[in-house]
Amino acid sequence: MKKVKQMDIIKGMKVSELVNEMSLSGVMGAGRIGKAVEILSEIKKDKKCKLFFGLAGAMVPGGMKNVVIDLLKERVDVFVTTGANLTHDLVEALGYSHLQGDPEADDKELHKKKIDRIYDSFMPNEVYEGLEDFFMKIFDSLPKEMNIREFLWELGKHVKSKNSILRICYEKKIPIFCPAIADSGIGLMIWGRLAAGKKIRIDAFDDLKEIIKIAWDSEKNAIFYVGGGVPKNYIQQAMQFSKGAFYGIQLTTDRPEYGGSSGAPLKEGISWGKMNEKGRYIDVYCDATISLPLIWAAVK
Amino acid sequence: MKKVKQMDIIKGMKVSELVNEMSLSGVMGAGRIGKAVEILSEIKKDKKCKLFFGLAGAMVPGGMKNVVIDLLKERVDVFVTTGANLTHDLVEALGYSHLQGDPEADDKELHKKKIDRIYDSFMPNEVYEGLEDFFMKIFDSLPKEMNIREFLWELGKHVKSKNSILRICYEKKIPIFCPAIADSGIGLMIWGRLAAGKKIRIDAFDDLKEIIKIAWDSEKNAIFYVGGGVPKNYIQQAMQFSKGAFYGIQLTTDRPEYGGSSGAPLKEGISWGKMNEKGRYIDVYCDATISLPLIWAAVK
Amino acid sequence: MKKVKQMDIIKGMKVSELVNEMSLSGVMGAGRIGKAVEILSEIKKDKKCKLFFGLAGAMVPGGMKNVVIDLLKERVDVFVTTGANLTHDLVEALGYSHLQGDPEADDKELHKKKIDRIYDSFMPNEVYEGLEDFFMKIFDSLPKEMNIREFLWELGKHVKSKNSILRICYEKKIPIFCPAIADSGIGLMIWGRLAAGKKIRIDAFDDLKEIIKIAWDSEKNAIFYVGGGVPKNYIQQAMQFSKGAFYGIQLTTDRPEYGGSSGAPLKEGISWGKMNEKGRYIDVYCDATISLPLIWAAVK
Amino acid sequence: MKKVKQMDIIKGMKVSELVNEMSLSGVMGAGRIGKAVEILSEIKKDKKCKLFFGLAGAMVPGGMKNVVIDLLKERVDVFVTTGANLTHDLVEALGYSHLQGDPEADDKELHKKKIDRIYDSFMPNEVYEGLEDFFMKIFDSLPKEMNIREFLWELGKHVKSKNSILRICYEKKIPIFCPAIADSGIGLMIWGRLAAGKKIRIDAFDDLKEIIKIAWDSEKNAIFYVGGGVPKNYIQQAMQFSKGAFYGIQLTTDRPEYGGSSGAPLKEGISWGKMNEKGRYIDVYCDATISLPLIWAAVK
To answer: Which residues of B touch C27 (CB under 8 A)?
Structure first.
């Protein structure tokens, strides 16, 4: 058994050096950060391996957009996220920003000022006008029958900002899945067009075959979950059609005992065949706005 | 200011009496249970008010199915849930059961025995054969173009068990929404039929107009969330098209500071116009398999 | 393997009936409540067994005083708690009450109004005057050399209210331990007397022999923890001098992965010999102001 | 209002650069880390200010000893911790190590092998023999009447390792308080000596006057809490005898709604006068084995 090395902090140290100390301590949260960095580094090198990245939580309002874009550029093969993150990405691509707010602000006052609160990240409600303009402009040029993955690539095609999740997925042809897309600002925009008499048909099930095929065809799969929800579960479901993931990283603040998918440790996936029983995996119990940049800065 | 009444426990007391003591103590978790019971009782009586019920988490594997059915029978006007809960409901409707397992069981052994683990609720993998039979039998009789709500009512129509969430929603014509339906065993069944060359088109956005219309048309809305995820967020989104909910109850184990929708207190919704600023609402921080039956036993 | 029985809620049902449904469901939080009730019922019957009860958290401000008193009257053999709970008990015994407050009240305003906030349980700062009067009156009659357990019984002797934790422990001669007693309002009162030139010597280690002796001499021990902290750890420490506890119940909202004693599952104690490897134990992850009265109402 | 800057990760970046990105993002957990670094940097510079450092949780088994020693060497004026951390510090000073273990190890096996488990940090039970030797050797040279702070300095005097919390506090004459010292391996050692017929009197209340005097005399106070429990509460109590802390940092994984002191946000202290209403403070909701080294590496 290895000793728990007491961590040494050096003035001016690099993130990689800090994380190395965490690896050497090897226990509790720090040990888990260390292990996540080891696994993600291995995934980076293992070119045969396909990386499925699931992203939930208010990650764009939480300042994580560029980290996500980095991951998409450098390594991700399949991306699954929430409609909210894609909407917030589009909002920023259209030139708006999220704002640093006070989590104890008076919500009635904010409502009067038309500011929407996401804990301490504030968003002016006027972004919806910008979104509506965008969709009005592009709508007629959209194919009228698509699946959700195709629809999201179409959106990416019309995004001009280079610094956008939607744009990068389109450019790099990274399949992007978002089963609950109707549950988002983007969903509302489609509703608005339909309400205005326009037609479009976006199939709810059609792209399921795509994610399953990628999982099935791949020799080896890796999973990386930031948060739980649909993004995690949708990838887990696809893993059942593979040999199970060989690598796994999960950043979560939920816990197992309540029984939900978001809090389930990756190990549980072995029973389902979602995780390979010889796979290497780690659950990191930490706010992703802290753990994700920390891990990425050490791996990049 | 009211005093914190020290709770008195009486041998053989009723749940309603226990919850009354919680109301009178008025603080911390017990106080929140008390308040949730008051608000749900009011919702029950306020006939003008439409109740939107969002259900996430492994609630059918967690023994909550009959409580949900009770709520659907007695009061719910709009129901939003996860594909997983509907799949587990269907599994039970087909005659299978979930099993009481050990959360520390060896997942490799379970995998060999073809038992899928949901924390300590186990499910034999053979249920997928039952599901496939069901879908093979009914598939040809399904309309070939539907939205998700229509599709779920169709499923409910073919369920024979009276003790089923899907069945009750169909029978009582309770609109049931599940934007991420592809992310579930039911999704896999549709994938299987499509892979077998069958055709069906289920629209991802079409029923969004229905939930928004109900929210919009209703004089007064109430929200009740068990867990977060898509079910909560999808209802929250619809509330923006109303005067904001006048009543709100949320049972959650998540917390606000990580910024995600699941942990956001109902109050945050005021800034968005999802909660009416004069609304009565309460966040209960407690495992729903404890808090939901406790609250319901006191209200029913 | 037993089936997960879907819980049935009956109008007007008793708490014991509700908890029976939880037992029959057998999974997640509800299953744990069910198991805790089974174990506590067994402890109640097993007269050879000594029950060590550890109580942390703001349980008197949280409305749990009478439940604690019930437990002390009916079954507890050894009691360990925080100085805060004993101070709040004394405050109520002197005629003050805690008040139902707003957790979002302005703390600056409260400070001006001399109201101390414990989340949503408020306490007028004037209680300290009452405490000081009490200690000034009794101080000269106190023995001048004691251990902490003796000191706490002395306090109990001078409490007139029958409805007091300190009083009951004194009357029933239940050993009451509070290693960190200096960390409390009671501690401040002793500091005040010492500052006024009075003398008293209360030994920090002397009563450790008493709790260890009870654990050692007893044929069989049971542990019941509400919260963690010193109360839990102090009992755990004593258990090392026994065969390990044969029964264990823990109500906690903490989690294991951070490594602290408060979140450690009872199972971990087996490695130390604190829990007997044949013992029956359960960890309940739930706010104690909900779970404690619920369990007690079903057992009483 | 400032924009939420999307964090940029640069290959090979320093911890201080990473934390700067967190500061600029300014929201959720990352924003809190950023703010904690700002406040701790200010405390470092503000020489008039006395820093009270409270340390709870399994921080020595968790690899944080050297970070704590750094803080003690560079800035801490008053130190409050648990008996467990001091015992684990002493264990390491005597030449033993904690070991990196598997949190899912079989506790029965560990018990047979005499290994004590602290989540995934393991400790051979033989350390108790080393502790006993140490205490047998030094006991006769100890003063026979002391308060707890004096006792802990005495222990520090007899520790030979330079790399020890107890030693540093003794050498630098940093007052070290541990009200619940009886609740620890060190407590057991004293019990052992008393059981062997030796005499010592260590007063439970006497050093309370010392911590209060430091708080009272100081022009300005700062508080830094790693975890909650007695260390936090004991410092909070002393703050009531000052103008309230002007700076505050709290690293916690607990939450406010359960009402306990460990989860209470620093803001709550304003109502009590523990935090100055003009003070700058931040609550960081993150595993301390991650957040503490991260913050310290950016500040040092």
So the answer is: 61-63, 98, 100-101, 119-121, 289
